[in-house]
Write a structure and sequence with these properties.
By secondary structure, the chain is mostly beta strands. It has helices spanning 7-17, 389-392, and strands at residues 31-34, 37-41, 48-59, 62-72, 77-88, 91-101, 106-109, 113-117, 120-124, 126-130, 135-145, 149-159, 164-175, 180-190, 195-207, 215-228, 231-244, 247-257, 262-266, 270-273, 276-279, 282-286, 294-308, 311-328, 331-349, 352-369, 372-379, 383-387. The chain has two helices and 28 strands.
């Protein structure tokens, strides 16, 4: 992961401070390879040494160059000025100014810093490194990029010992392709365990890499991305909202596995599709190749559809142990209610209410047109009854199947939050 090489920041200042933490074995010699001039003042134990012009130091495989270096022996402080470049192996640090305080064991780059290693780059307006804790803090307009992820944040804290990163404030994370964006108040990344966690006002957007205009939007208190046996797994925890095309949902938690393509909505899930709503103990969406094909409500499942906007208290309802919706182009085409299936269907004639029909069967199947029930079939163990309009009028709200629910707080699509006020060039590529 990027940032593993930031120990070079320590080495660059130790070269001048000549103050090191206790270590095993002899310290490598510091070699001044060049300076246009050297100026010293004061006694050896408390004076000041100044190196001017094309300064170049080496220690082992570490090379430091700068325009000017000042070592204050008395205050145990070293300052590097002007075009500071630190190289160690494949890692390079750039900064206009770096200072090291040997009393606090902290190196500061307060005028901007850039760290590069291969395809990995981190930049920020300020950077701080503790030689005791091996923790680096990047502050203000932080941008971290490697071959798999891009991170923008107000603050990024990297623990070299644990190889973990924590980002805070206006955090935006993108995959390398730009097809997935995530935001939140805090982000935690552990490359070793292949774990990325977003906390606080977390949200994610995913664009179809093949040009499908539909975007999948997920928001929750926490978003968690892990990888197991090479397969990605995405989880949303607490207050989950999902939107894709004509489908929206709420639940306590969500699990999404891109391969083979499945979304599980768990904990009081509610899903809206067109003008219909489905509730169940668990709702599973099959999304092979990110195309929604099937919705399955398991245990105490019920589908509710408002009959007519002229009669807002009347709802068609179909329920069963399992309810399966077949989807084409984000539109419900067919429904099957299996096991203890029941239905309530309100009837109209030329926009006049004509009562309702109640039925029960082993299985109920229905077709939809333009999001409304059309043909309904009852199969096995059929029981039915008709309630005429004089009986139903004024009492429509009493005709409800067990588990009936209707809510209008349907989630809606939210525009992506872009880093530091940037504007998107195209969908999926801010």
């Amino acid at each position: 992961m990027f940032m593993q090489y930031l120990s070079a920041l320590l080495l660059c200042v130790v070269l001048l401070s000549q103050q090191t933490l206790p270590q095993d074995g002899p310290q490598l010699p510091i070699v001044l390879q060049h300076a246009d001039s050297i100026v010293g003042s004061g006694p050896m134990e408390s004076g000041i040494r100044e190196f001017l012009g094309n300064v170049r130091f080496t220690q082992g495989n570490v090379t430091v160059t700068c325009d000017r270096a000042v070592h204050n022996v008395g205050s145990n402080r070293a300052d590097l000025y002007g075009r500071v470049i630190v190289k160690q192996g494949a890692a390079t640090i750039f900064a206009p100014f770096i200072t090291y305080d040997g009393n606090t064991y902290q190196a500061d780059a307060t005028r901007g810093i850039k760290v590069v290693e291969g395809a990995s780059t981190i930049t920020s307006r300020k950077g701080y490194y503790s030689t005791q804790t091996h923790i680096t803090t990047f502050i203000d307009s932080v941008v971290a990029v490697d071959d798999s992820v891009r991170i923008w944040a107000d603050t990024l804290v990297y623990d070299r010992n644990a190889d973990t990163s924590v980002a805070h404030g206006r955090v935006v994370v993108s995959d390398s392709s730009g097809n997935a964006w995530l935001t939140g108040d805090h982000a935690y990344r552990n490359p070793g365990s292949q774990r990325l966690q977003i906390n606080g006002n977390a949200a994610a957007w995913q664009w179809d890499p093949h040009g499908d205009p539909d975007t999948m939007y997920v928001a929750a208190d926490t978003l968690l991305m892990t990888k197991d046996k090479g397969l990605n797994r995405y989880e949303a925890l607490s207050g989950v909202r999902l939107v894709r095309g004509a489908v929206s949902a709420r639940s306590d938690s969500m699990v999404y596995v891109p391969e083979p393509g499945r979304i599980d909505l768990l904990g009081h899930p509610i899903l809206w599709s067109d003008s219909m709503l489905i509730v169940a103990d668990t709702i599973v969406a099959d999304v092979p190749e990110r195309t929604l094909t099937t919705l399955t409500g398991r245990t105490k499942a019920i589908l509710v559809s408002r009959t007519d906007t002229l009669y807002p208290d009347r709802f068609d309802q179909i329920g069963g142990d399992v309810v399966v919706l077949s989807i084409e182009q984000d539109t419900v085409r067919q429904l099957s209610a299996i096991g203890n299936a029941q239905s309530i269907t309100f009837r109209t004639e030329e926009e006049r209410p004509e009562g309702l029909a109640k039925a029960a069967a082993d299985t109920i199947r229905a077709n939809f047109e333009a999001g409304q029930l059309s043909d309904v079939y009852w199969l096995g163990g059929i029981e039915g009854e008709h309630h005429p309009e004089p009986v139903v009028a004024g009492r429509a709200e009493t005709y409800r199947l067990p588990g009936f629910l209707w809510r209008d707080d349907r989630p809606v699509m939210v525009s992506p939050i872009l880093p530091f006020g940037q504007k998107p060039a195209s969908a999926g590529n801010p």
